[in-house]
TrEMBL record:
Domain of life: Bacteria
Region (Adenylyl removase): 1-494
Organism: Haloactinopolyspora alba
GO BP annotation list: regulation of glutamine family amino acid metabolic process
A Pfam family hit: GlnD_UR_UTase
Catalytic activity: [glutamine synthetase]-L-tyrosine + ATP = [glutamine synthetase]-O(4)-(5'-adenylyl)-L-tyrosine + diphosphate; [glutamine synthetase]-O(4)-(5'-adenylyl)-L-tyrosine + phosphate = [glutamine synthetase]-L-tyrosine + ADP
Residues annotated as domain PII-uridylyltransferase/Glutamine-synthetase adenylyltransferase: 353-490, 855-995
Annotated region described as Adenylyl transferase, given as residue ranges: 502-1001
UniProt keyword terms in alphabetical order: ATP-binding, Ligase, Magnesium, Multifunctional enzyme, Nucleotide-binding, Nucleotidyltransferase, Transferase
Physiological role: Involved in the regulation of glutamine synthetase GlnA, a key enzyme in the process to assimilate ammonia. When cellular nitrogen levels are high, the C-terminal adenylyl transferase (AT) inactivates GlnA by covalent transfer of an adenylyl group from ATP to specific tyrosine residue of GlnA, thus reducing its activity. Conversely, when nitrogen levels are low, the N-terminal adenylyl removase (AR) activates GlnA by removing the adenylyl group by phosphorolysis, increasing its activity.
Any one Gene Ontology cellular component term annotated for this protein: cytosol
Signal sequence extent: none
Name this polypeptide is given: Bifunctional glutamine synthetase adenylyltransferase/adenylyl-removing enzyme
Similarity annotation: Belongs to the GlnE family.
Length: 1001
């Protein structure tokens, strides 16, 4: 379509994308393009390139360099009719001034762009032929030799190399090649160039040179087939004497070949340079010999190599020279690469090396460093390589040299989550493409994102983005994702655990697994092996992840009290959750969660059975905050809301039980992993019990009201007693309670009493329904007249009884009475009723004190099981729970009227208040509290291990060992554990003898 210049040609150029429209008009009018200038398709084609102004200037410069004649006319014709050629030529000219310089110097090469095929790129063999042809080498010879003058050969090699890079860049910029394919082709081009440079080096050898076998090993991005447009090419040289030639001097020949090859690539000639060949990755670096034999390399890596050198060898690949020798080298050194992860401190060294790389970035560039900075290419590469080195010992599928291929294998094998792997893959490709564009702009080796808007605008347009802000935003977003996943994967603690395993224990072959199980102390190795086989059989992603986890988990199970129980439990949990996406991901990525689950499962039956009934709770294991016992209020709100949603009382109590099951698991895990103290465990268990009773009471009230057809004629409340009232419950504690009710005005009292009793009975029934989780027994035996008395009383009934009939022990029991659930006002009035009884004015008289002491002695003699050893009884034995609690309660009964701080239901709180008031020495307080807390912890640990309550120190050696380990003792320290308990109990008993029986207060 012709353009009317009088109708705004400048506006037309601006709309086409030109920034300097006046300059563009001058270029169009004053050049060989004048005839084409009015054709909108050419201008539109220029407007589509990354930098239209640059594209037009360089096109004019190219035409001027060609001068009048058939060649220029041919190009003009192609610009007019061949859209494919025009698009590729303008894409290059409109992005890279360096390629424009090359085309101006070699104008005939524009024709290559018209015939280039993005779908059928040359093979590595074809590239080798092209580059050897350029230097006159015999492409069929084993050791081709270049023919011609050295200077001419080097120029020809550079022209041939740059010609192919030009063709590739044109396709990349115009057609959008896959970045991995571009990097692989550049690496194969580097292979061919090194082969041609070696041919040039051979041509420079003197006639008397002793022959040798010589191979070039590609390293770094060249070895990994992921080379940049502009990059050093890292290599290692290896040589051997020629077959059958025993003359000396072959090593000098090899060194000359290496030196000449490096010069052939890096020297500046009239045609510029190709790239530096860097051999600094060789043994001993730049201080070491340039060329070594295979045996010399092996000896160095075996005895002297550092961790980073094995990491570098991940990408070793024969690229030029004697291929058989190159393969021999790789076969000799790679086994050492896959053993490197077993070196002491290996993972930490790799992590430290990554930090050192970041520390050496120039401060002015750190936020723009695409390669080395946080969230850059190195973050992906280091994470991938570390995972490869750690897990590649056992899994050969991970032994890929390309970062993207290795990442794909790691993701496919379950070592990296699918989502994480996809994010890293996408980010790495984007960052590599951005790196390529930055380098192509001026064909310079740089990894720094420019900060000038004009440069960013050109790069953004080359990537299909509209403006610089879009490019920067996407780059920052990708870098942020890379950094997040790098920190998650690269610093994954499981890596260190896997790396520490001996080489023969990384895999789970039957023989290796059985030997390890025996060595770790599994009681039934054959049974454990069956669990392992069930977990790891097959080629599924799940089995693959289990094969990675289990070698470490087996050791963690063995560090816990009951490894066989732990492994069996792990299998059951995995069967329940194995297809849940987050489960294995959590264990793989979260070391704390995996180690904690191992400890929990191998510590005993109580928590394991809870976990098996609520396997989804595994998700809380990795978060300390999630494991801390919850307060009562949110739990109560949860259960009351749930109860209200169900009309059937048994459905309603199911909601309550689900909460209790989950919260018992939370408390027991926090106990086992050391997050909660014994006091916090007691408070947590009490909060769970209180919320459970509140939910049961609500469900019972609704059930009775539904049966009556109307609201209750009375208000009802539950008073906590005993350990529930003291907020000191253990895993096996009953819920000691009192029921109190108050008829509403004008209600019939017998009817109100019957309704209250029905609620109490229904509450007991609901809590007693068969259920797999530990039961909560409601015990109202502390009520007036004990089990013979009414289950529910009114306030006046309680008042009358306590005034006329209460004994000292009942006052003592009321020391732990606390509001539990139900009508708040009724609970407040009940507390007001009992406070004068439990905090009696003037304390206790001597007769009452003697009565307390007499009752305690009677309890010790009558309740201690027949034949039981008192020294092993945690509750009634000397220095046991009863000793400490009765001691604290006597102090409260005697002095709470004058020491308000003693008015507490807590045993530790009472002892602390007594010491604060001078009624108890601080040393004595510490002795009593230590004994009380230790006995409580042993009782709790026994339940956790066996799933059953016991007040005795375990007699069974296996149980005793497990309990001691749960409490922090090492294997084999059961005697120390028992001795410590006896010592602590004796010290507490000595205090009780003085304070409870003899104290002058």
């Amino acid at each position: 379509m012709a353009v009317n210049r009088t109708q705004g040609r400048v506006a037309w150029l601006a709309k086409a994308g030109f920034a300097d429209t006046a300059a563009a008009e001058r270029e169009l009018d004053g050049s060989a393009l004048a005839e084409l200038a009015d054709r909108s398709d050419l201008v539109a084609a220029l407007g589509a390139v990354s930098d239209p102004d640059l594209g037009l200037r360089e096109l004019v410069r190219l035409l001027d360099a060609m001068g009048p004649g058939a060649d220029r006319d041919e190009l003009l014709d192609q610009l007019a009719i061949d859209t494919s050629c025009r698009r590729r030529l303008l894409a290059v000219l409109g992005f890279s001034s360096a390629f424009a310089d090359h085309l101006v110097q070699h104008p005939d090469q524009w024709r290559e762009l018209g015939v280039a095929d993005a779908a059928a790129r040359p093979t590595a063999g074809e590239l080798r032929v092209r580059l050897l042809d350029a230097v006159g080498g015999d492409t069929g010879a084993d050791d081709p030799v270049a023919q011609g003058d050295r200077t001419t050969l080097l120029d020809a090699l550079r022209v041939a190399y740059r010609r192919h890079v030009l063709e590739l860049a044109a396709l990349d910029l115009a057609d959008g090649l896959e970045v991995a394919d571009v990097a692989a082709e550049l690496a194969e081009l580097a292979d061919a160039t090194l082969e041609a440079a070696l041919a040039v080096a051979r041509s420079q050898l003197p006639a008397e040179a002793v022959p040798c076998r010589f191979a070039v090993i590609g390293m770094g991005k060249c070895g990994g087939r992921e080379l940049n447009y502009v990059s050093d090419v890292d290599v290692i040289f290896v040589a051997e004497p020629a077959d059958g030639d025993d003359r000396s001097g072959w090593l000098a020949t090899a060194t000359t070949l290496a030196t000449e090859l490096m010069r052939a690539c890096s020297e500046h000639t009239a045609q510029g340079t190709i790239w530096p060949v860097d051999a600094a990755l060789r043994p001993e670096g730049k201080a070491g010999p340039l060329v070594r034999t295979v045996a010399s390399h092996v000896a160095y890596y075996r005895d002297w190599a550092k961790t980073w050198e094995f990491q570098a060898l991940l990408k070793a690949r024969p690229v030029a020279g004697d291929r058989a020798l190159g393969e021999l080298y790789v076969d000799a050194v790679l086994p050492m690469v896959w053993d490197a992860a077993g070196r002491e401190g290996f993972v930490g060294e790799v992590q430290a090396m990554r930090r050192r790389v970041e520390d050496h970035i120039r401060p002015a560039e750190v936020d723009r460093q695409l390669k080395l900075g946080p969230g850059g290419l190195r973050d992906v590469e280091f994470a991938v390589q570390l995972l490869q080195l750690v897990h590649g010992r056992a899994d050969e599928s991970l032994r890929a040299s390309s970062t993207l291929d290795a990442l794909g294998a790691l993701t496919g094998g379950g070592y990296v989550g699918r989502n994480d792997g996809a994010v890293l893959d996408h980010a790495y490709r984007f960052l590599r493409m951005l790196e390529h564009r930055i380098q192509l702009r001026r064909l310079r080796r740089t990894h720094v994102v420019p900060d000038a808007d004009e440069q960013l605008r050109v790069i953004a347009r080359s990537l299909g983005m509209r403006h610089p802000g879009e490019l920067v935003e996407q780059w920052r977003q990708q870098a942020q994702e890379v950094r997040r996943l790098h920190e998650k994967i690269f610093y994954r603690p499981l890596l260190s655990a896997v790396a520490r395993l001996p080489g023969d224990e990384v895999t789970l072959s039957p023989d290796a697994a059985l030997a390890r199980l025996k060595a770790l102390g599994y009681v039934d190795p054959a049974g454990a092996l069956r669990h392992i086989e069930a977990l790891t059989v097959g080629v599924s992603r799940r089995a693959s992840i289990q094969r990675t986890l289990l070698p470490v988990l087996l050791g963690w199970f063995a560090d816990a009290p009951q490894p066989d129980v732990g492994l069996a439990g792990f299998r059951k949990v995995s069967d329940a959750l194995g297809t849940t996406p987050w489960y294995l991901r959590l264990l793989r990525d979260d070391n704390a969660a995996a180690e904690r689950m191992s400890r929990v499962l191998a510590s005993g039956r109580y928590t394991t059975e809870l976990l098996l009934r609520a396997p989804g709770a595994v998700a809380m294991l990795g978060d300390d905050a999630e494991l801390r016992p919850r307060e009562r209020e949110p739990l109560e709100r949860e259960v009351l809301a749930g109860v209200q949603r169900h009309d059937d009382p048994e459905d309603a109590i199911g909601v309550v039980r689900a909460m209790r099951r989950r919260e018992l698991l939370r408390v027991s895990v926090s106990d086992l992993v050391g997050i909660s103290t014994v006091d916090e465990v007691g408070a947590g268990l009490t909060a769970v019990a209180e919320a459970t009773l509140a939910g049961a009471l609500s469900a019972a009230i609704r059930a009775v009201e539904a049966g009556r057809g109307g609201p209750l004629p009375t208000r009802i409340a539950v008073v906590a007693m005993g350990r529930l009232g003291g907020r000191e419950m253990g895993y096996a504690s009953d819920a000691d309670v009192l029921y109190v009710h108050s008829p509403v005005p004008e209600a019939d009292e017998p009817e109100a009493a019957a309704a209250a009793l029905a609620v109490a009975n229904e509450m007991t029934r609901l809590l007693a329904l068969p259920s797999p989780e530990p039961s909560l027994t409601v015990d109202a035996a502390l009520r007036p007249e004990g089990k013979q008395g009414p289950l529910v009383r009114t306030l006046p009934s309680y008042a009358a009884y306590y005034e006329r009939w209460s004994e000292v022990w009942e006052r003592q029991a009321l020391l732990r009475a606390a509001p539990c659930c139900g009508d708040p006002e009724l609970l407040r009035r009940f507390e007001a009723l009992i406070d004068p009884l439990r905090w009696p004015a003037g304390g206790l008289g001597d007769t009452q004190v003697r009565e307390v002491r007499r009752i305690k002695a009677r309890v010790e003699s009558e309740r201690l099981p027949r034949g039981a050893d008192p020294s092993t009884h945690l509750k009634l034995g000397p220095g046991g729970l009863a000793d400490v609690e009765w001691c604290a309660q006597l102090l409260q009964l005697r002095h709470a009227s004058t020491v308000p701080a003693l008015r507490t239901t807590s045993t530790p709180g009472a002892l602390n208040a007594a010491a604060g008031a001078g009624l108890l020495d601080r040393v004595d307080e510490e002795a009593l509290l230590t004994a009380w807390r230790r006995a409580s912890a042993i009782r709790n640990a026994t339940v956790l291990v066996t799933g059953r309550p016991s007040d005795m120190i375990p007699k069974d050696p296996a149980t005793l060992s497990a309990v001691s380990q749960v409490l922090g003792y090492a294997v084999g320290e059961t005697t120390t554990f028992v001795d410590d308990q006896h010592r602590v109990a004796r010290q507490a008993r000595a205090v009780v003898e003085r304070v409870f029986y003899e104290d002058p207060h």
